[in-house]
Amino acid sequence: MNENTLILQVPAKVNLSLDITGRRPDGYHTLRSVFQTISLCDTLIITKTDENTPFLLTCDTDDIPCDGRNLVTKAAIALLGAHPCGVKIHLQKQIPSQAGMGGGSADCAAALLGIRRILGLPVSNERLHSIAASLGADIPFFLVGGTVLAEGIGDILTPLAPAPERILVVAKGTEGISTPTAYRQIDALQQPLPTYTDAVMQNLYGDANALFDACGNAFDAVAENAEIRTIRQIMREYGANPVLSGSGAAVFCGMANMTSAQNCVTALQKAGLPLACIAHTRAQGITVHIAS
């Protein structure tokens, strides 16, 4: 065992529901949503270095910035000061960017947990949650994981009993969606937005098909591009209810069995989608292992 290196499995999330409930005077929108971690994971490898060695972030994906723009670096600065030292992190990406699946936020939460543990920092859980909230509204969720009711701007979290494991298909095209743009489009709508969270809460622990039929997202009313249309069409051909995650551009659906899920993924891949995979809902959040 190498206690100087930690390996963290960092799950993505989907929004089983997402209701826009209002807008605060400061411009932030309030929401009500059921967040659910899933089995699609990034990996963070955190290694303790000499206490005078500057922090270093590397990534296996060229299009991910490894400087101060990255939330992992911001986590290190928040815990260790403006010039962090004593730890390096390698990020292995599987969660797509601009997908509404919280990849950057999840990695940030994992960095907070991992740095605190590997350096033995005297930071309480309450303080860690406060730091997480200062870095992004949905980062505290990833410190918890599982099935959670999120309210406010996503910062008021009520953990729920773990939902039964469900089979999902997740897909995303090459294009992302700008969250600020999506909110502006929401604000421009004249008709009232549908709500889904109450129905999802009522069906979380019952029949899988009833749950999948209840899932929905207010951003589905405005999220639109050719790739999203293709994903929705293929998922509907397999009898599924396609639902955007977050503000997009990833779309997921629940599947009744593995054969249907595999057939749907094959059709999405044949349509040229760069991400099309089977995932499962995941009861736990970030997991930490000591490297062997």
Please, what is the average pLDDT? 95
Gap between N and C termini: 4 Å
- Percent of residues in β-strands: 25-35%
Label the structural class: alpha+beta
Count the DSSP helices: 9
Largest sheet, in brief, is: 8 strands, mixed
**Helix coverage percent:** 25-40%
Q: Which residues form runs of ≥5 with pLDDT under 50?
A: none
Q: How large, in whole angstroms, is the Cα Rg?
A: 19 Å
> Care to count the β-strands?
12
Shape: globular
Order of helices and strands: EEEHEHHHEEEHHHEHEEHEE
Question: Can you describe this structure?
Answer:
It is built from nine helices and twelve strands. With 292 residues, it is α+β, with helices and mostly antiparallel strands. Helix 1 runs parallel beside helix 2. The mean pLDDT is 95.
Write the layout of secondary structure elements.
Elements: E1 2-23, E2 29-48, E3 56-59, H1 71-80, E4 87-92, H2 103-119, H3 125-135, H4 139-144, E5 147-151, E6 156-159, E7 167-172, H5 179-188, H6 197-203, H7 208-214, E8 216-217, H8 226-237, E9 243-244, E10 251-255, H9 258-270, E11 275-280, E12 287-291
Parallel strand pairs: 1-8, 3-4
Antiparallel strand pairs: 1-2, 1-12, 2-4, 2-5, 5-6, 7-10, 7-11, 9-10
Helix pairs in contact: 1-2, 6-7
Question: Could you list some keywords that capture this structure?
Answer:
single chain, 8-stranded mixed β-sheet, 12 strands, 292 residues, 32% helix, alpha+beta, 4-stranded antiparallel β-sheet
Nutshell version of this structure?
With 292 residues, the protein is of the alpha+beta class. It has helices at 71-80, 103-119, 125-135, 139-144, 179-188, 197-203, 208-214, 226-237, 258-270, and strands at 2-23, 29-48, 56-59, 87-92, 147-151, 156-159, 167-172, 216-217, 243-244, 251-255, 275-280, 287-291.
